[in-house]
Amino acid sequence: MSDPTQAEILPSGFLRSVHWLNAAAIFIMIGSGWRIYSWYPALPIDWEFPWSLTLGGDTGLDEALHNEWGLANALAWHFGAMWLLVINFLLYLAYGVTTRHFRKDFLPLGPKLILRDLGLALRGKLEHRLGDYNAVQKAFYWLVIAALIITILSGLAIWKPAQLHPLTSLLGGYEVARVVHFFGMAVIVGFLVVHVCLAVLVPQTLVAMLFGRAWHPRTAASEVKR
Length: 226
Known about the structure:
Elements: E1 6-9, H1 13-39, H2 59-66, H3 71-98, H4 101-106, H5 111-122, H6 135-159, H7 165-170, H8 174-201, H9 203-211, E2 214-217
Antiparallel strand pairs: 1-2
């Protein structure tokens, strides 16, 4: 029998699977994208990502075999992960709409709620309950969903600028689409940094996402999500 002083939180198997598949796809795309950027920068500045943080294979081996430093491999990794991300993300959007996940977990939301919870967080008074998102978290999730949509669309515009000419034109042309793609990536990386820090500060969330269950003290407001 469960301890009556505890409440069990069970993220759905679908959400856990989507979470980790998206995480894998995004990390692959970031690493390979940084290698691609270092070859062909989107911004007019003399700077590149450290090669140790990029993905594209061993540069020495690629130079010997293909006379280039991993660009072809980086592109292969990037496009492979792109399909995983797009398909997985579309499934997540469909799930979020059909099960009302977005409405139940990410709404209501507004400037007053965000400022209120942000103020509480800065003062260290914001309570965190598993399965219950505060307004700041809700805003971050909406932000990263928007960033993923923009990054995917700009990536498609870069990948097939001729075939998807209307989309590329809508984004301001090929070179502007590359800049949009870069800053979309930057927003996603920023979200990941905050996300990982919160997981470290509240390890129950990581346990729940890994194993499908975690425990926290039961309160009057606690709910069991299955």
